[in-house]
Amino acid sequence: MGKYRYLTFEDRKKIEAWYLIGDRAIDIATRLSVHHSTIYKELQRGATGALDVNLCEGYNAELAEKRLWESFKRRGKRAPAAQ
């Protein structure tokens, strides 16, 4: 059974660098010892909406970190009940 852990900002910077040079998500996952779906989800979280030099959707570690903390802040909050 694997151990769960959050990606750190340092991990995100590594992902950004490796993804920019054209590494595949599966190779990045192997280097970080995480499941490949973790990397795919992380690439979606940090998507910039623009194409990078490899003509893939860009990834920004700072944007991903910001979106992660915004997600943490929303946890547990419920929508007000309709009356």
Strand content: 5-15%
Main sheet: which strands, in order across? 1-2
Spans of 5+ residues with little confidence (pLDDT < 50)?
none
Radius of gyration based on Cα positions: 15 Å
> Distance between termini?
46 Å
Mean pLDDT: 87
Question: Secondary-structure element order, as H and E?
Answer: HHHEEH
What is the share of helical residues?
40-55%
The total strand number stands at 2
Main sheet: strands, sense, barrel: 2 strands, antiparallel
Structural class: mainly alpha
The count of helical stretches stands at: 4
| Overall morphology | globular
Task: Tell me what you see in this structure.
This protein has 83 residues and is mostly helical. It has helices spanning 9-20, 25-32, 36-45, 61-74, and strands at 47-51, 57-59. It has a two-stranded antiparallel sheet with strand order 1-2. Helix 2 packs across helix 3 (36-45).
Topology:
Blueprint lengths: L8 H12 L4 H8 L3 H10 L1 E5 L5 E3 L1 H14 L9
Antiparallel strand pairs: 1-2
Summarize the structure.
The chain contains four helices and two strands, in the order H-H-H-E-E-H.
What tags apply to this protein structure?
mainly alpha, two-stranded antiparallel ribbon, 83 residues, 4 helices
